[in-house]
Known about the structure:
elongated, 2 domains, 7 helices, six-stranded mixed sheet, mainly beta, 22 strands, Ferric Hydroxamate Uptake Protein, Chain A, domain 1, eight-stranded antiparallel sheet
Amino acid sequence: MARSKISCPTTAKQRHAAVCRPSIWTGCCARSILTVAAEAIVESGYTTVDQFMNTLPQVTPSSSSQSNNPSNNGRSVIDLRGLGSNRNLVLIDGRRGMGSTSGGVVDINTIPSALIERVEVITGGAGATYGADAVAGVVNFIMKKDFEGVAISSQYRLTEQEDGQEWSSDITLGGKFADGRGSAVFSAGYFKRDDMYKDARTFSAQASSATATFPGGSYTAGANVPSQAAVDAIFGPGKCAPNGGSAGFGFNPDGTLFCTGVGGSPLDVVNYKGPDTDIAKAFFPDFFSYNFEPANILVLPMERWNAYARLGLEVSDSFKPYAQFMYTNYNALQELAPTPAGGSTGFTVPVTNPFITAPLKALLAARPNPTAAFDLAKRFNALGGRTGFNTHDVWQLTSGATGDLVGSWTYDAYASYGRSVLNEIQGGNVRRDRTQALLNAADGGRSLCSGGLNLFGSAEISQACRDYISLEAKNLTVIEQSILEATATGDLA
Length: 493
């Protein structure tokens, strides 16, 4: 039968040629297996394995190495049949790979693409053999073990818009020794991808969901609403609701007020003077919502180095020792829109705050309780986006032996130890306690940081105050995995 590059057991109704081949992880063809040859991955033009895997019908595209929101710190995982990445098992030559998450999910960034011989995907009946980790199925990456010679490959890729550049280079060396009974292979690879932000594409440049936190900030009245007369004096008779709209009263860059509007009513946005780029056009002028999308990364930047080495020797039919080492280091940057603080994460401001503008003072004075503090929501664009710089170090050492036992019986025994380390540095976070302290201060916080903190509009925030309210968070995640396993396979009769 002719072998196709992507193959699986077939029926008479299927058009494409397919193969069902024995495997060290199933032992037979009793289960449906999709086999993907290395050539199919290369000829696809994709520079990473996860990009290709997400094109397979058995795979539900999940958090890839490109994903920003939701993101997996730059990791790339496989999700078979949409049941979750922790419900399928990823193997390398039939053995469990090094897990990179708390649930032991394998990051396929750590698998050297230059040495993949084929990929086998099983999507049925694996749970009974492999347990809960394989309810959705198993993905087995078969690596080249008898490579001879030197192979150098390089690839460059960019979009039709001439951005999103990707580079990859690999070198592989291998050969035989001990009269052909031994084999050694080594491979090293490098990959780099540029970032791409959402404003680079029209389909992602505009927010499709609403938000009530704006760069200029907003005041929400709650039950302590200003009088309609006070609101009309600022915006004109009948143009604005007493509470300012669905998101309250917004602040223009100069500190003046605008009505945020009420969706589905005649009360639209009134007196907005901010930049057009801040407007989420899907909702304007019915009501105001901030367009937070342009500041989000669409495709994560990444830089990755990996190395792989394997040594095998056939001492006899009953003893074939081997050793394998894999190492990957890569970094990836995540970035979301600047931190929003509103509602339960927002702030309360006393009426004594020195930065309160004249129009706002008039509204506050027209409330049933004019001396009560008021709620303020703010998106902290002055601090930049919420960033996560992730550095991963993942390695695994496996050593064992295979061979014949008695009759048709064979064995495979091995020990494996691996370690995954993730260093994450988060930027763009806001210290709520310190921000609240500055707002409560009688001098507006000038005694705590230079110039104090004026959150009404787009007033300049001094570097000293930025440093005072900013928080750089650091997370260290270390995962260790030890495996000792022995299996025997053969006919009982």
